[in-house]
Amino acid sequence: MAAETSPLAQFEIKRLVQMDVGGLDVSFTNASLFMVIAIVAVTLFLTWSMRSRAMVPGRMQSMAELSYEFIANMIKDNVGSEGRKYFPFIFTLFMFVLFCNLIGMIPYSFTVTSQIIVTFALAAVVFIGVTLIGIFKHGFKFLTFFVPSGVPFVLLIILVPIEVISYFVRPISLSVRLFANMLAGHTLLKVFGGFVVGLGLYLGWLPLGFIVVLTGLEFLVAFLQAYVFAILSCLYLNDALHLHH
Amino acid sequence: MELEAAKMIGAGLATIALAGVGVGIGNIFGSYVSGSLRNPAAAPKVFGNVLLGFALTEAVALFALVIAFLILFG
């Protein structure tokens, strides 16, 4: 199969502006372009929709308020009142991932979240930040997080390494979940697109119908993965703030 | 055996994980339906958890996909 027609060709990173700082390749790529577009879109959406500040919100304003309240309630339910000061971080994370996913659904655009390095960087920020919050809040007591309470000593020898490993696997599972979902969905769409072309005028309608359904599913997944990313960050934050009770 | 053929077989074997994921997703939505028929008033409250469980289970299938890709192209 030629490189341009491969279903994975859409994830290729192209350098738009060549840049080189001290031997380090910091070129402005199509990934960077779509990250900038996502940031601009979020900013425009939130500022433009809130410009009227009406008591009775219009369509756009209630969308912005809905997304705000969605995350605010998520933090209140999962972290409690202590989590309120981390609201800007979780909200930014949610909106960025959501807009990157949704912009990726536009044909011929680029899905930033289908790059493992982008999602891993986001997950690493969450992981390191949450760990630091836990250490600063609890000091040495943070280590009791790895020791399940009410367990006989013999079992602890097995359980503590498992807890430590499962803690350090968190950024990997968090990033791979988002990355693999976007990668698999977009690859699937392209593969079915290939079926449409391959089967021709008479049989090609069948996979075309599948593509319509799959596109709907992908929109659901785009929202769902942003939601899962945000809620798991909330749960990790809750673990760090309250340890196990 | 040739390396290329072994890679193909390995990638195919990696998709066996889908069996477990199918059971898992069916379990989630089956439990949701039976639970919401018993207590329809509580159904909207747990739907968020259903979606979360669905996404977490689906991710397991995608881990298998990543492994298949790693075998094929890695």
TrEMBL record, chain B:
<dbReference type="GO" id="GO:0008289">
    <property type="term" value="F:lipid binding"/>
</dbReference>
<comment type="function">
    <text>F(1)F(0) ATP synthase produces ATP from ADP in the presence of a proton or sodium gradient. F-type ATPases consist of two structural domains, F(1) containing the extramembraneous catalytic core and F(0) containing the membrane proton channel, linked together by a central stalk and a peripheral stalk. During catalysis, ATP synthesis in the catalytic domain of F(1) is coupled via a rotary mechanism of the central stalk subunits to proton translocation.</text>
</comment>
<feature type="site" description="Reversibly protonated during proton transport">
    <location>
        <position position="58"/>
    </location>
</feature>
<feature type="transmembrane region" description="Helical">
    <location>
        <begin position="12"/>
        <end position="30"/>
    </location>
</feature>
<comment type="function">
    <text>Key component of the F(0) channel; it plays a direct role in translocation across the membrane. A homomeric c-ring of between 10-14 subunits forms the central stalk rotor element with the F(1) delta and epsilon subunits.</text>
</comment>
<dbReference type="GO" id="GO:0033177">
    <property type="term" value="C:proton-transporting two-sector ATPase complex, proton-transporting domain"/>
</dbReference>
<dbReference type="InterPro" id="IPR000454">
    <property type="entry name" value="ATP_synth_F0_csu"/>
</dbReference>
<keyword id="KW-1003">Cell membrane</keyword>
<keyword id="KW-0812">Transmembrane</keyword>
<dbReference type="GO" id="GO:0005886">
    <property type="term" value="C:plasma membrane"/>
</dbReference>
<keyword id="KW-0472">Membrane</keyword>
<feature type="transmembrane region" description="Helical">
    <location>
        <begin position="50"/>
        <end position="73"/>
    </location>
</feature>
<keyword id="KW-1133">Transmembrane helix</keyword>
<dbReference type="InterPro" id="IPR038662">
    <property type="entry name" value="ATP_synth_F0_csu_sf"/>
</dbReference>
<dbReference type="GO" id="GO:0045259">
    <property type="term" value="C:proton-transporting ATP synthase complex"/>
</dbReference>
<keyword id="KW-0813">Transport</keyword>
<protein>
    <recommendedName>
        <fullName>ATP synthase subunit c</fullName>
    </recommendedName>
</protein>
<dbReference type="InterPro" id="IPR035921">
    <property type="entry name" value="F/V-ATP_Csub_sf"/>
</dbReference>
<keyword id="KW-0446">Lipid-binding</keyword>
<comment type="similarity">
    <text>Belongs to the ATPase C chain family.</text>
</comment>
<keyword id="KW-0375">Hydrogen ion transport</keyword>
<dbReference type="GO" id="GO:0046933">
    <property type="term" value="F:proton-transporting ATP synthase activity, rotational mechanism"/>
</dbReference>
<dbReference type="InterPro" id="IPR002379">
    <property type="entry name" value="ATPase_proteolipid_c-like_dom"/>
</dbReference>
<feature type="domain" description="V-ATPase proteolipid subunit C-like">
    <location>
        <begin position="9"/>
        <end position="71"/>
    </location>
</feature>
<keyword id="KW-0066">ATP synthesis</keyword>
<keyword id="KW-0406">Ion transport</keyword>
<dbReference type="Pfam" id="PF00137">
    <property type="entry name" value="ATP-synt_C"/>
</dbReference>
<keyword id="KW-0138">CF(0)</keyword>
